[in-house]
Amino acid sequence: MKLLFSFSIITSTLFVFSCNSNESNKNKPEPTTKEELGELLFSDPILSQNNQISCASCHIPDFAFSDTSSFSKGVDGKIGTRNTPSAMNQSARNFFFHDGRAETLEDQAAGPIENPIEMNLPIAEAIKKLNADKYYSAYFKKIYQELPNRVNLLDAIAAFERTLETGDTPFDRFMKEDTTAISEAAKRGQKIFNEKGKCFDCHFGPDFTGNQFRNIGLFNGKELKDMGRFDATKDSSDIGKFKVPGLRNISVTAPYMHNGMFKTLSEVIDYYNSPSDFVKGSINSDSLMFKPIALSSTEKIDLLEFLKTLTDDRFTKIAKH
Question: How far apart are CA 272 and CA 289, in angstroms?
């Protein structure tokens, strides 16, 4: 059963601490669990060079902990090279980042902090800053019975991320035999998703991801040069493959794909319907992409209606299609 996350320390809109973490912590509820401590750290720019950005700067709570731009800005306005994925519904995953280079949430948590384009702060330096902060040193001492260190820092952030599970969607209610939870169009769309559209071949399981890597035709060695999974494995068969994302809350995590090239779900559906209309000369593309699926205009609408049912109720007011 999916767990529902309720915001405790952070608000339902993005907030970022002031650059003086010590002062801002005076006014925040004291964390009593490692999950609450991780939540506090997630939204505090203390983990970045010169206290410029936090994890929540790119993983925006209102947008299912994803970003709203194709590429996020790191410290000093540096632009990233891949779209920021949602940090929600990650508990059951065994690979993280688009190329799967991390195998635990703890390893994943360290990546953005140390990445020179993102937060640009060696973990050792982050630990020094936390130990110098009288509030954080006290929080860690109370919760972990020790001062901040690499292990408990990453453990706290990962513990918070594991709370970010959602399951209050129209589709979940439909699966619990509430036949009125989704529209007739969405019901038709589910059939298309499972059959003609072949979406289920990659997007399956509770979070609609098979924990697989696929090449969906977005690498041609020209304008699309990101080799994806190959960067982590150096296996030529992985060129152009990327981790299949989950589809929960998909209506609010635009733009889409590892490079954010599609602004709406309708564009994503159009791409899958006829990939060669968008990308020429794809290399190592998955066999599922060889033939256009030839959805009609009505079928595209029905599929979109189904995808909309996968978004948690808390996000429906800002869902974009």
Answer: 8
**pLDDT at res. 113:** 97
Across the range 267-289, mean pLDDT stands at 94
The CA distances from residue 294 to 124, 127, 144, 270, in Å, are 53, 54, 56, 10
Crossing angle (nearest 10°) for helices 265-273 and 297-308: 130
Residue with tokens 């006014």: 27
**Model pLDDT for residues 7-25, shown as the tens digit of each residue:** 444 433 333 343 445 555 5
Q: What distance in Å separates the CA atoms of residue 108 and residue 104, rounded to the nearest whole number?
A: 6
Query: Model confidence over 293-311: pLDDT tens digits?
Result: 999 999 999 999 999 999 9
Which residues 6+ apart lie within 8 Å of 72 measured at CB? 57, 58, 79, 80, 83, 84, 118
